[in-house]
Amino acid sequence: MSTDQRVAYSDEDLQEFKELILKKLEQATADYELLRAGASMASGNDVADTSPTFKSLQEGATILSRGEAGQQAMRLLKFIQGLQAALVRIEKKTYGICRETGKLIPKERLRAVPHTTLSIEAKLSEKK
Questions:
Q1: CATH 1.20.120.910 at 11-127, yes or no
Q2: 15, 63, 65, 96, 112 from 73: Cα distances, Å
Q3: 66 Cα distance to chain centroid
Q4: Helix, strand, coil: what percent of the chain each, to 5?
């Protein structure tokens, strides 16, 4: 049977995706905690005895680094939320169904982007 004719993935397929998502969720959560800690941490290097110019440059670099870590943390948080939503769809047995076309999203796409809710076709037509 072609994947286009099926209306849902089998329980075995859903279990495979659930395991994949749980692994990605565990890694993403650990990465998020590291980034969040890095974004909020004060610099451990004391520059009290160095020149004021160097101190200003280092403080600027530290602020920039914290800002970048904060942005990465926000992107990661969005990814985590997408993975959590995918787990809910698995439980409801609606995982892998394109929200635009109603067709099954190919397994290859779901393995690459497990939190997606759009097929490639729907994603491309969304950009037009």
A1: yes
A2: 28, 15, 12, 26, 21
A3: 20
A4: 65, 0, 35
Buried b or exposed e, range 35-59, using 16+ CB within 10 angstroms: bbeebeeeeeeeeeeeeeeeeeeee
pLDDT tens track for 39-57: 665 445 544 555 555 555 5
> Which sequence spans correspond to the domains of the chain?
11-127
pTM: 0.73
The percentage of residues in the chain with a pLDDT greater than 70, rounded to a whole number, is 71
Confirm if 103 and 119 have CB atoms less than 8 A apart. yes
Are 102 and 109 within 8 A, CB to CB? Answer: no
